[in-house]
User: What shape does this take?
Amino acid sequence: QVQLVESGGGLVQAGGSLRLSCAASGSIFMINPMGWYRQAPGKQRELVALISSATIGGSTNYADSVKGRFTISRDNAENTVYLQMNSLKSEDTGVYYCYADGHWGQGTLVTVSS
Assistant: This one.
């Protein structure tokens, strides 16, 4: 059973950047897909970005609201998935969760001040 630990959240001004990390307890090489979701206050959890395993091309998918601003990547050697977030907006505020193989991390809070 894989365990996921997110980090990198915090308070940032609108237009700023943050990089989230998701460290897995074991190998992520074969896990497909891995992803980031977020939950804003009073709203349902929503998909932010997914990345497939390298064995099937490592393709990525993004929510329309973050396309061109966020980038998901994975480092199989470090068993870590990243989410680079640029040009942050107040509507990006929420708890960000890492997802892999049916498991969730505990979440990391991102707050974007306008």
Q: What stands out?
A: The CA atoms of residues 97 and 107 lie 4 Å apart. The chain is about 0% helix and 50% strand.
